[in-house]
Fold each of these.
Amino acid sequence: MELPVFGAGIIFNFTEGFVMSNYSELFSKSIDNPEEFWAEAAEGISWYKKWDKVLDDDNPPFYRWFSGAELNTCYNAVDRHVENGLGDKAAIIYDSPVTDTIYKLTYNELLRKVSSFAGVLKAQGVSKGDTVIIYMPMIPEAAVAMLACARLGAVHSVVFGGFAAHELAIRIDHAQPKVIVTASGAIEGKKTLAYKPLVDKAFDSADHKPEKCIVFQRPFVTAELQEGRDLDWQQEMNKSEAADCVPVAATDPLYILYTSGTTGMPKGVMRDNGGHAVALHWSMKNIYNIDTKDVFWSASDVGWVVGHSYIVYGPLLKGCTTVFYEGKPIGTPDPGAFWRVISEHGVKTLFTAPTAFRAIKKEDPNGAFCKKYDLSSFEALYLAGERLDPDTYHWACDLLKCPVIDHWWQTETGWAIVANCRGIEEFPVKPGSPTKAVPGYDVHIVDEHGKELGPNQEGNVVIKLPLPPGTLVSLWRDEKKFVKSYMSAFKGYYETSDGGFIDEDGYVYVMGRMDDVINIAGHRLSTGAMEEVIANHPDVAECAVIGTHDKLKGEKPIGFIILKAGVQRDFEEVKQELAQMVRDQIGPIACYRESILAHRLPKTRSGKILRGTMRAIANGKEYRMPSTIDDPTILDEITQVLSTMGLPE
Ligand code: COA
Ligand code: AMP
């Protein structure tokens, strides 16, 4: 039960009387006086030149933080820790059950590797403002490549290894990289995957041709190198001349991270250097309660925003130790994998997606594996990436007997919007809610006309502008799309595209996406992109893909397929072909397997497919009969088909 609040920052405590509440005080300051708040937070970062303005709001909705300032993100994440005497401390612990390897990289060693690889990139003509695509598995070289780009002021774009060649090619054409950095392959669970053939295929199909491809050869799979274009990572490192940090403007881009939108063309979320460094550094203590001496583990992948922010940049900016885990929560080798890593490396905080816990729970419901390990270093579990269902929350609490913190964020924001900020003040948890807005985020709920809704009323979750530092500054080479996608629907607010409500105590509840983005095992995917692939099948006339509930992965895609008139094929065969097409063109992580033969789709009188209504039916939610529907009887048909499939689970 939360204590009663008496005005900004003051709470009544029954033993101490009236005291200041850290959270309310800090939150109010961040909203009422953001410039002072973030200027103080910016003291945690080393600058070559301080800012002229903390917040440049001359051109809304393009807000700029720390304009006029200069810094280097790599310097802040690596060099300064060495200069401050932390050179011998572990920066990265690489733990790879799939290759049976564990080693540590100290800050000294990381500095040597990063400055050498920056030299390799520089020798290939990469300089400030150039783009570099990184397509790598979970190995420390991925972080080395990211930091080397940051060192030179080049802009990296990491592409998740589970994306197919076609998706990589889309990103190559949009980001126009000078160089691609990749590895010969990965081990995914028990499968050995060769990355280079995918990269070669992407090179062939992309219109833009990067000048060089640098390949890190792994012992279990050797990549063939193309004379004149491909370079061997190690050979180049052996002859490299270390490169120094290049000062960049705080407002210069650090990276582009493509994320799924509602169409086949992903959005290139653009992050700057200054705001990003300040916000992530601040978040490590205030949200995660992490100090320099601690070991922080984010069990995600460098290809996702969680990997960017909390495997690489956040922990390294803080100067603590980060774990690079190349494995799965189960099967590598068993559901005790996470507990082994925690106990072996003295992990204080683990951050992962609820799916990982559902997978562990499925294989080890009584937590027998957990009991085998000494988890005395472990302090708290943080979960994000999808809604934390109360069942998983309670199971994790019972198992670990430590705080289990749900927190909500998006690729676009780069760090948490709503969280129980343990480093500031820990609130009692209400299962199903990630707790309260993080300082910097002015979260509101509005209806479709932008009218503010009261406590417990469900609507669109929006954030009042300006967004805090570290959030997206625009979309790469597409300012118009940035404004249209996020800033147009509700004037003066950022549209999150999530639906939810805020209760009478200020606890935010995020209920799910209101658009065609779905979340499969914490991976963000676009049903629109899947529809684009399916529509290319020669027998398909029309289709609609929606996300339906899945016990393990949160959501899974299902396609409603209308075949062209006269097509007389066995639908099972078509179904297999569609699954293969999505796998080949988007990637295995799309997990597209299920297609349903349909004869018609629910549409408005103007012909728009009512995907929202289909989603509601599939997930057993109440829906209002759309007034524009051309034939309401079709909704009964859809309900019937889905109920024969046993949905929702
Ligand atoms: N490179 C290539 N392929 C990949 C890949 C990668 N980096 N990551 C996943 N894949 C493949 C998988 O091998 C699988 O292929 P398959 O269809 O041939 O079996 C497919 O993509 C689906 O992967 P995934 O959804 O991860 O399913 P899974 O059954 O292999 O594992 C979980 C299930 C729950 C264990 C796994 O999804 C997991 O650990 N989730 C945690 C979520 C997470 O870390 N999210 C990141 C955001 S915080
Ligand atoms: P991504 O951009 O991949 O991080 O995915 C962002 C989306 O994941 C959000 O818009 C939400 O729909 C969902 N999401 C992430 N974290 C949470 C959470 N803690 N609770 C509910 N939904 C979440």
Note: The chain is about 30% helix and 25% strand.
Amino acid sequence: MKQFVIPELGENIQSATIVKVLIKPGDVVQQDQSVLELETDKATIEVPSDVSGKVVEVKVNEGDQVEIGQLVFTVDADGAAATVPEEKKEVQPAPVVETPAPAETPAPAAAPVTAPVIEEQVAAPVPAAPVVNPPAAGPKVIPVENQPPILQNAAPAAPSVRRLAREIGVDVNQVKGTGPGGRILLDDVKLHSKLMHQQRNEVQHISAEQHQQPLPDFSKYGDVETVAMSNIRQKTAEHLSHAWHTIPHVTQFDKADITQLEEFRKSYAKTAEKFGVKLTVTAILVKIISSAMKTFPQFNASVDMQNKTIVYKKYFNIGIAVDTEFGLIVPVIKNADRMNIIEISKEINALAEKARNKKVGVADLQGGCFTITNLGGIGGTSFTPIVNSPEVAILGVSKGSIEPVYINGKFEPRLMLPLSLSYDHRIIDGADGIRFLRWVIEALENPMKLIIEG
Ligand code: CAO
């Protein structure tokens, strides 16, 4: 008889909620077959089995809150079809990750502030990939689509160091090794854990502050319904609160005259169709922003206040806020600077579709340097987006509309696109903010700029 227990699910994840149980007594399970759907505070993931055999007893139900290491089911390993094909032992399925997504933010001021959340936040780190460490067979990593499994770059560490990391909930792959050749030492793991706790306390402190004021009893005034926040919503709220509290935001507004660009977009529509895409202003902006970040490297940076350093990134990954029925998701276009606008359009379409079909993987949501949030397809004249920490700037796009513009002594109807650039004033000064935005606007108004300077 063998047992399947809840495996490790990633750094800082101690428990999860069972969304679906995919097996029942009498079923024959194979190793690597998905047996559970779990919702953690980071994502919804499918968990593969590390045992094979005939299911004898299932100890959990949908909706249960389960802990790492908790018994889920037992199998009779001698049961039918318990053998695992060789190739299956090596390749594990990519997890299906559902909408680990951010969402609209409660406006901190009168303005409708919205902002995306994602990865690498100091506050709520999303694990590099859902990691499943079956208790018996040592650490295993489920590869995420388009991303090599972490084990390919396994951190150099002795088994005792790995064991300590596992026991105290540290992802050893995230630890910076200070031993010979970058080897990870016990002290490195302890220091990493200490820093994680400090960061968590900081966030809890912020969250606690926000929850200090109890709500009044609304039922005194009429009918109410109270609904529990999902884990993802809680983390989203924490992340946005963290970004709002730690980043001194400034939002700079301006408008681009896109009359000419719109004519070009329309005239090029048929050609774009041949490539199977629709040429949109969002795709053009992705290209422009990735070029602007080369001219203004402080917009492609992150602030590390703990070490008093600024991290400048040499890659250009742009997150696009996508509105889905499950909430806001921000997939990331990797190396946008190396793509042409047709390729960027294809990538936006593919990622937006994946996001809307709940098929987006954690890797699709990570590694962003700058976010674009285009609400103009819906409407609005301006808004103040929240910087997607640890990024330092975000561009909000509102609805382009025809306006009278005074040119050469008379008013002319021009298509004007309102832009809102929010940035982190710790490392971006006001003058740099408007220089960046003007650069973007000039590139929209005169695409030759991209060819010459981009
Ligand atoms: N001004 C005027 N019209 C705009 C526009 C703008 N800023 N942006 C898009 N449009 C138009 C497009 O031209 C298109 O019109 P046609 O159908 O007539 O050609 C229509 O709106 C729909 O565009 P689209 O959504 O298909 O394409 P897109 O590349 O412009 O946008 C995406 C893609 C993913 C950004 C968008 O679908 C989306 O999800 N937007 C919402 C993002 C969001 O929720 N942000 C909030 C984040 S903070 O909470």
Note: The CA atoms of residues 54 and 155 lie 36 Å apart.
